[in-house]
């Protein structure tokens, strides 16, 4: 493990019945890195995130955070360590206000101390993601793009060290995606390590320092974005020849 | 703008209203006859139970049907101790502690269940405790019940003692509810009700908080059972582990507004008034009317009476907190 690594996954596997949903996966995340995690539907991306955040227990292998074995942690412990994640399907507390939603993150994870202080912190995070004006609305009234931003603000309130973003751009239009990308860049600028689970290749390629590719639960490739895009295995498993051609151009010019 | 969680003015209003109610009940023996004192004692009893149920059923959103199990458990614990010669007050306190421990152990077991499964599990607890009380005749007197020494000093004195005991217990329960409502615990329980998985991912230790809510939902109900046993001086399994009670308490809370501070109290008062004024004329179809109230609640009053202003669109300043 290099001195710069914040999270290390070693030979991690999870078996459901006869299916190896995550199969002997190993990688490290460097401090402050943005790492794209791609792969076809059902490749095990979300399962991998669930294993890293204590939602699921690993069948074998281990997860090390700051050199400490955290494989057996439970979700709230992962959150308190600074392993935060957003959900593919956004999960706000629907009847609470937007502000309360974010305050919950500050209160229970970042140990803001009092509810009042958590609420103050929450307000800052809402301004940061651009939801300041909607603070008093019930979360259920937000539009999808705003819900995604709320999800980000909640994660930020947890003062994450590693933030796993599970398809935060799914269902957004081009303009909304640009705003989301800008937001992710600004979060990264704060020194937060980011794992980006994404189907939109232009998002992965424009943000990631490094890309991991999962297929049938196994890590079939990892490297710089342009290397991965040109990797024959990845093209066969996920990208397809035509997409690969297009994205090659995109990487070179982007 | 409605300021999140910190509803200081809301809390002050609640405390003022409850304070006025307390003064009224405390003066009742000088204002009204023993019949009214008896009704007031019952209202205090149900306020304690409703406020307690609100911790688990309202804040945490776990519909518990175990209320009567803890009421009966506390009643038997207090009665057995008193029958063995322990002084009344000490028996009440011991019953409280025993109920708290009992509920913590149960909570560890059944709070793994969610939604309907939890409801069924809590119901099973009621039946099991009832079965134990009926079968363990050596300790509980079995089906023939248990006598508790009658409080000396005459009926007027006794009725005041039990009124003030129940009132004091209701005040303590309300004070705890007030603390929980504005604390981390209350906030965490509200998160659990709305999305347990998300709450867990956000750093809420859901298992610990749920057990805390469950113990809070049981402890003072146990005390109320012990006080009740001393009051009526005879208990048996059918009365103490009543299914009607275990359903009535949640209905009262839902009637007033679940997950709010004042909702349970409003619900109890409204329900008792209904019962005294209307149902007494329909003795044969009593439970039919209860059923009707439940149906009306579900369809017409999802937020309870306290949710009504907001539902009718009377401004956002309304009490309603979903």
In short:
The complex is a heterodimer of chains A (254) and B (322). With 254 residues, chain A is α/β, with parallel strands linked by helices.
Name the features.
heterodimer, A: 254 residues, alpha/beta, Rossmann fold, 2 domains, four-stranded antiparallel sheet, 10 helices, globular, B: 322 residues, mainly alpha, two-stranded antiparallel ribbon, 2 strands, 74% helix, disordered N terminus, disordered C terminus
The helix count of chain B comes to 15
Mind describing the biggest β-sheet of chain B?
Answer: 2 strands, antiparallel
Q: What would you give as the CATH superfamily of the largest domain in chain A? A: P-loop containing nucleotide triphosphate hydrolases
Give the helix/strand class of chain A: alpha/beta
Describe the protein.
- The complex is a heterodimer of chains A (254) and B (322).
- By secondary structure, chain A is α/β, with parallel strands linked by helices.
- Chain A folds into two domains: 171 residues, P-loop containing nucleotide triphosphate hydrolases (Rossmann fold); 69 residues.
- Helix content of chain A is 41%, strand content 24%.
- A six-stranded mixed β-sheet of chain A has the order 6-7-8-3-9-10, with helices on both faces. A four-stranded antiparallel β-sheet of chain A has the order 2-1-4-5, with helices on one face.
- In chain A, helix 6 links the parallel strand 7 and strand 8.
- The longest helix of chain A has 16 residues.
- The mean pLDDT of chain A is 87.
- Chain B is mainly α and 322 residues long.
- Chain B has a domain of 219 residues.
- Helix content of chain B is 74%, strand content 1%.
- A two-stranded antiparallel sheet of chain B has the order 1-2.
- The longest helix of chain B is centred in the middle third of the chain and has 28 residues.
- The N terminus and C terminus of chain B are likely disordered.
- Classes of the chains: A alpha/beta (254), B mainly alpha (322).
- The interface between A and B is medium-sized, with 35 and 26 residues.
């Amino acid at each position: 493990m290099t001195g710069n690594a914040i999270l290390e996954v070693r030979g991690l596997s999870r078996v459901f019945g006869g299916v190896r949903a995550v199969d002997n996966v190993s990688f490290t995340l460097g401090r402050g890195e943005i790492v794209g995690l791609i792969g076809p539907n059902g490749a095990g991306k979300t399962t991998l995130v669930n294993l890293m955040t204590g939602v699921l227990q690993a069948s074998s292998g281990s997860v090390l955070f700051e050199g400490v074995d955290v494989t057996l942690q439970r979700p709230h412990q992962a959150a308190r360590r600074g392993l935060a994640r957003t959900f593919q399907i956004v999960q706000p507390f629907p009847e609470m206000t937007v502000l309360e939603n974010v305050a919950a993150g500050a209160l229970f994870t970042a140990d803001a101390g009092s509810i009042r202080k958590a609420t103050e912190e929450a307000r800052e995070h809402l301004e940061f993601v651009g939801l300041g004006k909607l603070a008093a609305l019930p979360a259920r009234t937000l539009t999808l793009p705003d819900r995604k931003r709320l999800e980000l603000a909640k994660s930020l309130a947890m003062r994450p060290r590693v933030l796993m973003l599970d398809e935060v751009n799914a269902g957004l239009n081009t303009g909304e995606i640009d705003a989301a990308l800008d937001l992710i860049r600004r979060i990264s600028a704060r020194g937060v390590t980011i794992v980006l689970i994404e189907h939109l290749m232009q998002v992965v390629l424009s943000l990631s320092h490094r890309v991991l590719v999962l297929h049938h639960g196994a890590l079939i490739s990892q490297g710089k974005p342009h290397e991965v895009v040109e990797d024959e295995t990845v093209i066969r498993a996920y990208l397809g020849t035509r997409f690969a051609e297009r994205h090659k151009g995109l990487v070179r010019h982007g | 703008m409605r300021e999140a969680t910190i509803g200081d003015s809301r809390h002050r209003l609640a405390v003022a209203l409850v304070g006025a109610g307390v003064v009224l009940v405390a003066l009742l023996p000088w204002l009204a006859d023993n019949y009214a004192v008896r009704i007031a004692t019952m209202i205090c009893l149900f306020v304690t139970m409703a406020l307690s149920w609100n911790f688990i059923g309202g804040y945490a959103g776990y519909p518990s049907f175990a209320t009567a199990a803890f009421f009966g458990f506390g009643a038997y614990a207090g009665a057995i101790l008193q029958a063995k010669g322990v002084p009344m007050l000490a028996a009440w306190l011991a019953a409280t502690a025993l109920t708290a421990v009992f509920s913590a152990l149960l909570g560890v077991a059944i709070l793994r269940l969610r939604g309907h499964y939890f409801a069924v599990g809590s119901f099973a607890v009621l039946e099991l405790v009832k079965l134990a009380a009926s079968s363990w005749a050596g300790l509980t007197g079995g089906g023939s019940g248990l006598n508790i020494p009658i409080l000396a000093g005459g009926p007027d004195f006794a009725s005041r003692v039990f009124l003030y005991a129940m009132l004091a217990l209701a005040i303590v329960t309300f004070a705890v509810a007030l603390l929980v409502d504005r604390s981390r615990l209350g906030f965490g329980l509200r998160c659990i009700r709305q999305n347990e998985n998300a709450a867990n991912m956000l750093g809420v230790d859901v298992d610990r908080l749920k057990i805390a809510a469950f113990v809070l939902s049981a402890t003072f109900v146990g005390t109320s059972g012990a006080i009740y046993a001393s009051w009526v001086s005879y208990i048996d399994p059918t009365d103490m582990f009543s299914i009607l009670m275990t359903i009535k308490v949640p209905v009262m809370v839902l009637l007033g507004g679940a997950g709010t501070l004042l909702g349970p109290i409003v619900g109890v008062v409204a329900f008792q008034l209904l019962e005294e004024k209307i149902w007494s004329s329909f003795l044969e179809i009593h439970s039919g009317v209860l059923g009707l109230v439940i149906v009306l609640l579900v369809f017409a009053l999802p937020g309870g009476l306290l949710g009504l202003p907001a539902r009718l669109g009377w401004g956002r300043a309304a009490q309603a907190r979903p």
